[in-house]
Design a protein that fits this description.
By secondary structure, the chain is mostly beta strands. It has one domain: Neuraminidase. The chain contains one helix and 26 strands. It has one helix spanning 263-268; strands at 2-3, 7-11, 18-24, 29-34, 39-44, 49-54, 59-66, 69-74, 77-82, 88-93, 101-108, 114-120, 128-134, 137-145, 148-153, 159-164, 169-176, 181-182, 187-191, 197-203, 209-214, 218-222, 228-233, 239-245, 251-256, 275-279. Strands 1-23-22-21-20 form a five-stranded mixed β-sheet, with no helix packed on it. The radius of gyration is 17 Å and the shape is globular. Keywords: Metal-binding, Zinc. This is Sugar lactone lactonase YvrE. Its cofactor is Zn(2+).
Length: 293
């Protein structure tokens, strides 16, 4: 049964492809991207103020380095962004020699290792991969990925999750908690069926997996064993990625998109691309900082 929990609109700016939300608990600031439009959004939750920053390139995710810097994952590499002036400096190239691909879903492991997904700009089959930035070097974890999504980690750091959305399968892979790197092969945790597809995910403090179901106007909550526990309604059809926000990490920020909608579809989905806050009645976890070395 679909739950309709108290929901508000954090940002009325309608993202072409809203993605990559994260939250800095030290400053009460939420961040997310419009991948297609090359924008980074910054929301001060206490005041409700929202700003957008033009990046000059497609980007999809960030990790906090420290109080002054972020690591931005963009279509051609990883950039260090200084918060004071927004200046971006290339840290490492990633698929920079392949203009057909871009970054997609990413998340920082508790160890500081950053899992990074790439895909074809036209979702070409098997054009992307999932990488790990660990100790300043990038390695390939899973090649031949079409649309990487649902990258997240169990609270103890011993399990990683991901999906290749067209396969409709959520995978679980055992990890070394100290490094965030695999120590075994991915296994099928659950198979998605019905309306929509597996998009971005985040784990809560109890280990449940909160997945934005693209095309189904909802966020589904799964146990670590793959059982669906809850489904929360989202007032936009293409919900794309969740993140826990707020000083007590009890609210769920959910991005959305109007990508691939014609005029009639957008008229029928008037809040497509908006960014929402759901009263989730759950406890999230603070996002770890990314380690560059």
């Amino acid at each position: 049964m679909m739950e309709q929990v108290p929901t508000s609109v954090l940002s009325t700016e309608q993202c072409h492809l809203g993605e990559g939300p994260t939250y800095d608990v030290t400053t009460d600031t939420a961040w997310w991207f419009d991948i297609r439009e090359g924008k980074l959004f910054e929301a001060q939750l206490g005041s409700g103020s929202v700003r957008s920053h033009a990046l000059g390139r497609m980007a999809s995710a960030l990790g906090r380095i420290d109080a002054a810097r972020q690591l931005i994952v963009a279509e051609d590499g990883l950039y260090i962004r200084t918060l004071a002036d927004g200046a971006m400096t290339l840290f490492l190239p990633l698929e920079a020699d392949n203009p057909a691909t871009r970054s997609n879903d990413c998340r920082v492991h508790q160890s500081g290792t950053f899992w990074i997904g790439t895909m074809g700009k036209k979702a070409e089959p098997k054009a992307g991969a999932i990488y790990a930035l660990h100790r300043g070097k990038i390695s390939t974890l899973f090649p031949g990925i079409s649309i990487p999504n649902s990258i997240c980690f169990s609270p103890d750091g011993a399990t990683g999750y991901f999906t290749d959305t067209p396969r409709a399968v959520l995978y679980a892979v055992p990890l070394n908690p100290a490094t965030g790197l695999p120590r075994g092969e991915p296994e099928v945790l659950l198979r998605h069926s019905g309306i929509g597809g597996l998009d971005g995910s985040v784990c809560d403090a109890d280990g449940s997996i909160w997945n934005a179901c693209w095309g189904a106007s909802r966020v589904d909550v799964y146990s670590p064993h793959g059982e669906r526990l809850r489904s929360l309604g989202v007032p936009a059809k293409q919900s794309s990625c969740p993140a826990f926000v707020g000083p007590d990490l009890s609210r769920l920020l959910v991005t959305s998109a109007w990508q691939d909608m014609d005029a009639a579809a957008r008229a029928a989905d008037p809040q497509a691309g908006c960014t929402f806050l759901l009263e989730a009645s759950a406890r999230g976890r603070a996002e770890p900082d990314v380690k560059l070395a």
